[in-house]
Structure formats: C-alpha cells, structure tokens
Design goal:
heterodimer; A: mainly beta; 6-stranded mixed β-sheet; 4-stranded antiparallel β-sheet; 4 helices; globular; B: alpha+beta; 3-stranded antiparallel β-sheet; 7 helices; elongated
Chain lengths: ~450, ~240
C-alpha cells in the first residue's frame, strides 16, 4: 500500500512540475478590443438564367433591395465589388465552382451568391450564403414566387440568415407605429415596415390619437384618442379591425402592454385624483395599482424579464426616471442628469434604458442611454434640436426616435451606439412617437 | 433466480383491451376532427415556396484550422527570411494565405518607430500584455534558443498584437450572452512569419468568439518574420471582447 501511495504522489509531483513548466513555456498576448464589429460580406451580382435574359429590371430591383436590407440592420459590411479578385462572369455560384481562397484573402467572411430566373410573372430565386474561411454553405434557399412578392421573399431570406447566424429573430418582420399629423390639427396613427416602407393609416378619427403600443403578438395596438373630447383608451385589433374603447374618469395616458402579454396593460389613470400607474385588462378592469405616491407617475416600460418597471415620476420635484421592482415593490431613482428625463424605453434584450433628456443650458432635447443599475450613461444625440420618444427595435440593436433636426419633426433610426442616424421615411405632415413592434408580425 | 409463471388466463386482460380499443377510436376521432377544424388553406398554396438547400459536396474541403500553412523549408534558413519569403510567394496559388511580404524599407522604419514606442512603454507601464514577468518563461519552449534580445521579442509581440487586432471582427449580436469569456489560442510562428499550427488551447464556450479569433489570425498571416536567431515562436493569444460596450 505504502509503495502505491508513494508512486501516486510522485506521479502527481512529476505532473505538477511538468505542467507548470509547459505553462510558462509560452508568451502571451492579450487582445481585448475587436477592431471592427460589422461582419464583412461579399454579395456577388445576380446570375440571370432566365430565357432570353428577360426581367433585367426586376432583377436589378431585387438586387438593390437585397443590398438595402442587408445593410440596413447594421450587422454587416458589404464589400465593394471592386475588391473582388475575379470578374463578375467568372464568379461561381455553387460551392464546387467557388474558389474560397479568393474570398477569404480579400477579408470577407461571408459570401452570398444568387441565381435568379424570371419567367413572365414567376420568379425563382436561389440564394447561397457561404462561410469563406470554412468553405461551407451556411444557408441555402430556393424560393418560387410571383414577382409581386419579391419584397416579402427577400425579407424571408434575410430573416433566415439572421436566424441561422444569431439564433434569434431578426427585425425584418417587424413594423413601426407612429403618429402623424393629417389635415388641420388631426393626429392619426400609422404603421410602416421596419425600414419605413409602405406607411399605412390605422386610425381615422379626425381627432388626436397618440401613444401607440404593440401587444406581444403584434396583433393589437393600444392608443389614446381624444375623439369624444376626453381621453379614451382604444385597443385596435389590426387583423379583424375591431375596436374596443375604455373610458376611465379623468386622464388616461401612455399605455404599455405588460411584458409578453396580450391581455394586460399598464397605463396612467387619474381615478384616485393623482396620476398613478395601474395594471388593467383589455376589458377595462383594473387589476392592480402599481404606484402610490404624491406627484404624477407616467410612461411605464418593462424589463426583458418583466420583473422591473421603469417609469417617470415627479416625486422629487422634476420629472425623473425611477425603477420599481415589481416583486418587492421597492423603488429607486435612476437618472440625476439634466433638468428632466422622460420617455424611458427598456431594451428588449438587456438591462439598458433609453430616454430623452432635457438639457438645462443648451435648450435641446437629447436621447440618452443608461444601464439599469445607473452606470454607463451615454448621450446618443447632440446638436440636433429636439430628439424625443426613443423606442428599441425588437433585437435591441436599433433605436427609432423623433427629431426636428430638419425643421419639421420626422422619425429617425440609429444604432444603439448613436451612430448611423438616418431618416426612416419622408411623409407629408409631422411624424412623432415611433414605437417599434415585436419581431415576428404575421399580417 | 426466481421463475415467473405465465398465466394462461386471458380473461383478465379483456377489460384492458376494450379500454384501449375505445381510447384508440376516441383519439382517432379527435385527431381527424381537430385537424379539419384548423385546416389553414393558405398553407396548402403558399405565397412563397421556400426550399432549404443542403450542401453535399462541401465535405471538409479545407476547413482544417489546426494546420493552416505548412512551409516545409522554413527551419533550414532561419538567418535569411527574405529568401523564404520569395519561395512562399511562388507558392501563392497553392497557399494563398501567404500574402505579399512587406517592403524591407518599411519594415525598418516601423522597427525604429516601434523601438521608440518601446522605450516609452518601458517608462510608462506594462504594455498590452498581462504581466507574466513573475513566471519564468522557458525560452527554449517559447522561442527555440535562449540567447535572444528581449527587446526584439517585445517589439515583435507588439506587431503581432496590432496586426491581429486590426483583423478581428466581432459582433456581440452573433455571440452568446456569457460573462467574462475568453478564448486562448496557441500559434507557432516560423522564422519567415508563416504559421505552422493554430490550436485552441482553451475554448470560451461561445463558438462564435472562438471562430472569430481564429479568423483574425488567419487573416493576419503571414506575420512579419521573426527576429534573427529565433527558430520558432510559440505564443498564446488571449481574446477577450471586453472592449465592446
């Protein structure tokens, strides 16, 4: 026994020394700062295999659309075609034709090839997405559809790329609701695609409708309207076009659906005299009172887990953002900068809150972002007039907001670092209050 | 061992049989009726016909990451790295990872600049690396020979770090949500700057991070040639995407 023990001990000792030596045998370099955060992708020209080369214009349109969609979400960097090693005709579309070294050597990590066939009204699209370093097909799809469905088809494909690469839903099937002025003083609610395409009027009340809010399944839109002279809460089913109206005595402002719910809303009511936040259900019944304090409490927004609620309160004098833990009902103040901070919107994926902040000196309103624990305060806009009502995209990568930087108020989109600010859409009237829908809208 | 007796009395099982029979029929009806009620006609003739492609001929063509670039005659001429470069250049078609060697003049310029920065670094603080000065490096394993100017090695390290970091593309949207992840990759650099071996020493638990780290190394190959006298250089690269907010 003793001999055995000794043997084991000596073996361990030997291994210990051996390991320690080999550990010290390397030099180390720490690399902690990725230089780029956009994945380089090469998109080859579409290969037209249709008879007599018909449908050139359609193909050009589809190509532009594909570039637009891939660029829009800000995950990819499309490599300029001038950098391609081979000329357009020689580039293969299927893996046996492709020389992957040609692609990895120009630094691209992804390669997207397309074969397209147009036959009168019919469209056949063959997409292949390759990993150039592993020489492997990542996503391959064939679509057969009518030309009229091209937008939807490309969206479907782009969505499948993102799902494959990130494992999460993309924003391609999401929509943005916003408020726009119509005619003389009326404000109506509109809905458009994630990239501002095809704005569609939802309300037709000839009065003021504001504060749209999407239900979890994206089928219902809650909003506040002044149609009958006083504030009423409407819930519109966007599929059946049914309206349900709720009338509470007094003020009703800024409804927001509870996290993951299609039946429960949080909204500010003044039934107790003071403006407080309540949970109500879709038939107008009050479920629970959430705030109880002197001074108004408005604009509820919920954390991804639904356990916390951020809201605006005037309990300390000026409007500031507070966070309430819905479990133990504790409340803490989040913002201290600026004159006042309003319109909080909690990121759908992480503990970050974006809000608008009114500066004391500059007389401008800016979009700012802060972690839910109060750290990492960053101002995202500057020197661009009033930037208001921020709203997160469902994947937490983009922020939509309203700004009057061009004189009239319009809707803009930026990524969550504040870069790449661009106008969402050009539409008559003034647009405010953008609200991004959940990821998968099927209508 | 016990022996079990099989009873021949089938009557015992009649009620079970009847129950099962009824349950089957009930289940059958339920399935057929519920199916016909929820039949969605739009699913029979969809707007877009969507077919998934599966690759058949992509069987590990060249996906091996363990051996990226093998130049056989590297050890023979450690003192004349330029010759090796030319040879590697000839093979560019076969081994396209060998990019063109940087100009000698430029290299000298950058060397001087790096020397200056090095002195500054010395006075200021530790450089990009973790302070491993407490660990006695076994130079025989790290560089091959023990008599090498440490300054030169440090400059070389600096160059490596810059070139790899410049090629590192990493997006947090593609990665798993894990806190404090790091991947350690061991590479063996030959005198001409080519890489003989890439080996993931410690995975991070997030495939995406591991892949981007390897890609960044593959993109920066070939590295500048090793300082004179070094027959090879084993180095561990620690990637931590903490620079992202």
């Amino acid at each position: 026994m003793n001999k055995k023990k000794l043997n084991i001990i000596s073996l361990f000792l030997f291994l210990f020394f051996f390991c320690s030596k080999s550990y010290a045998g390397y030099d180390y370099i720490n690399i902690s700062n990725p230089f780029l955060n956009k994945i380089p992708i090469a998109i080859t020209s579409f290969k037209n295999v249709s008879k007599d080369g018909q449908g050139k214009e359609t193909i050009k349109e589809i190509e532009d659309l594909l570039h637009h969609y891939i660029k829009y979400i800000g995950f990819f960097n499309i490599i300029d075609k001038k950098a391609f090693i081979q000329s357009d005709e020689k580039i293969g579309s299927i893996s046996s034709e492709i020389n992957f070294r040609d692609w990895s050597s120009i630094g691209t990590e992804l390669l997207l090839t397309t074969i397209v066939k147009v036959d009168k009204n019919e469209l056949r699209l063959e997409f292949r997405l390759f990993d150039t370093f592993k020489s492997r097909l990542i996503v391959g799809k064939i679509y057969r559809t009518k030309i009229a469905n091209k937008r939807k088809t490309i969206k479907t494909f782009c969505d499948s790329i993102i799902k494959r690469l990130t494992g999460k839903d993309s924003i391609y099937n999401s929509k943005i609701a916003f408020v726009s002025t119509v005619g003389k003083g009326a404000k109506e609610i509109f809905v458009c695609d994630f990239d501002g395409y095809a704005p569609k009027r939802i309300t037709n009340k000839n009065s003021i409708s504001v504060s749209p809010a999407w239900s979890y399944d994206g089928r219902k839109l809650a909003f506040v309207s002044y149609e009958k002279g006083e504030q009423q809460l409407y819930i519109k089913n966007l599929i059946t076009n049914e309206n349900s109206v709720m009338n509470f005595n007094g003020i009703t402002i800024a409804p927001e659906w509870a996290k993951g719910s299609n039946t429960k809303l949080a909204t500010t009511l003044s039934i107790s005299g003071d403006q407080e936040i309540y949970f109500i259900n879709t038939s107008g019944k009050i479920i629970k009172r959430l705030t109880k304090n002197y001074g108004i409490d408005i604009s509820p927004t919920f954390s991804p887990s639904g356990k916390n609620m951020a809201f605006v309160s005037r309990r300390s004098g000026s409007p500031q953002i507070y966070i309430k833990n819905l479990r133990d009902n504790s409340v803490r103040r989040l913002t201290y900068t600026g004159r006042y901070n309003t319109s909080p919107s909690w990121s759908p994926i992480e503990d970050k809150i974006v809000f608008e902040s009114v500066d004391n000196k500059k007389k401008e309103i800016n979009i700012c972002i802060i972690n839910a624990d109060g750290s990492n305060f960053i101002q995202l806009t500057s020197n661009s007039g009033a930037n208001e009502a921020p709203s997160w995209s469902p994947d937490g990568s983009l922020i939509a907001f309203a700004s009057n930087r061009e004189g009239v108020s319009r809707i803009y989109v930026m990524n969550n670092m504040g870069t790449e600010q661009r106008r969402l859409l050009l539409y008559k009237g003034e647009q405010t209050f953008p609200v991004w829908s959940p990821a998968n809208i099927k209508w | 061992m016990k022996k079990y007796r099989i009873r021949n009395n089938y009557r015992v099982y009649y009620p079970y049989f009847i129950l099962s029979f009824v349950a089957h029929i009930l289940f059958f009806f339920m399935v057929t009726y519920s199916g016909s009620l929820h039949l969605d006609y739009s699913q029979i003739k969809p707007e877009i016909i969507d077919v998934n492609l599966v690759s058949i001929n992509d069987k590990e063509k060249s996906s091996s990451t363990s051996i990226v670039n093998k130049t056989q005659d590297t050890k023979t001429q450690p003192s004349e790295p330029n010759v090796v470069y030319e040879k590697a250049g000839d093979k560019e078609k076969a081994i396209p990872l060998n990019k063109k060697a940087p100009d000698k003049k430029k290299r000298i310029d950058s060397k001087e600049r790096l020397k200056n920065t090095l002195e500054r670094f010395k006075t200021e603080s530790k450089t990009e690396t973790v302070d491993y000065s407490n660990i006695t490096t076994n130079t025989a394993i790290a560089y091959g020979t023990a008599k090498i100017d440490k300054k030169q090695v440090l400059t070389y390290k600096q160059k490596l770090a810059i070139s790899i970091q410049r090629n590192w593309v990493y997006s947090k949207y593609f990665s798993k949500n894990i806190k404090h992840k790091e991947v350690r990759i061991l590479i063996k650099i030959m005198p001409d700057g080519s890489v003989n071996e890439i080996w993931t020493k410690k995975k991070s638990g997030d495939n995406y991070l591991d892949e981007t780290a390897i890609k960044s190394i593959q993109k920066s190959i070939p590295f500048p040639p090793l300082p004179k006298g070094m027959s090879f250089y084993n180095i561990v690269l620690i990637f931590t995407p903490e620079g992202l907010r």
